[in-house]
Structures are given as structure tokens and as C-alpha cells.
Amino acid sequence: MSKKILIVEDDKACSDMYKMRFELNKWEVTLAYSPEHAFTIFKTGYNPDAILLDLMFRGMQGDEFLHIIRKDPQTKDTVVVVLTAMNIIEPTKQTEISKEADDYIMKISIMPKELVERFNELVEKKRKTI
Q1: Whole-model pTM?
Q2: Which residues pair with 50 in a beta bridge?
Q3: Contact call for residues 119 and 4 (beta carbons, < 8 A)
Q4: Is 123 in contact with 79 (CB distance < 8 Å)?
């Protein structure tokens, strides 16, 4: 059974790179270029196994999106990894994000191959607990 991931990233080059890497590893990939776009996708009944989430967007920010999806029965148990280029984030906000996300990773500190491996581990772990 293939795994489904929603990549919420406004940088097209980044999202395309992650999409390619996940597809090479047999993931079914859907792209959303903003949290609002992701909500539109969810309204179609799409329910991914995992979400790769950036933090910075023009409209709704990634941390707000994360907070909302954690309260929604459709997405509350979905694996979410925050992947950000922000190296300085308010400690209170980082703590809040870390409590709601399954992982919090700096873009500069992980290679795409390692990222896919991390998602594989998290999704398998989550499947065993549900």
C-alpha cells in the first residue's frame, strides 16, 4: 500500500524537489502552495498519511494551520513534520509547534533522502499505535 503525503510549501522549487524524492520512494504526493490551498484539498475528502509543512506563508502561517488541523477529527492523527528555513523562532512558539508536530526540522540540516526516511519511520510508528 502506497503512502500519501501532502506537501504544504510555497516555494515551487522546494516542493518539486520534495515531490520527486517522495515519488521515487513510492509515495503518492499532493502539493499545496498555502495552508488555504491545503484546506481546499481536504474539503475534497483527501486524507494523507503525512503532511510536510513549511512555516512561512503570505496568508495563514504554518503554525496556525498546524493548530487547526490538530483539532480536526479528519487530520488530528496525521503525521506532520514542520520543515522550515527559519533559524530563529520565538521559544514559546517553537515549544508550541513541537508539541503539535511529530517532528520539527531545519531545512538546512536534512537531505531530501533522509527526510523521506524520517517520514517512513514516523508513519509506520503511527500506524502501529492507531
Answers
A1: 0.92
A2: 5, 79
A3: no
A4: yes
The C-alpha angle with vertex 126 and arms to 99 and 21, in degrees rounded to 5, equals: 90
Three-state secondary structure readout of the chain = CCEEEEEECCCHHHHHHHHHHHHHCCEEEEEECCHHHHHHHHCCCCCCCEEEECCCCCCCCHHHHHHHHHHCCCCCCCEEEEEECCCCCCHHHHHHHHHHCCEEEEHHHCCHHHHHHHHHHHHHHHHHHC
Q: What is the pLDDT of residues 59-102, one digit of tens each?
A: 899 999 999 999 999 999 999 999 988 665 666 667 778 789 99
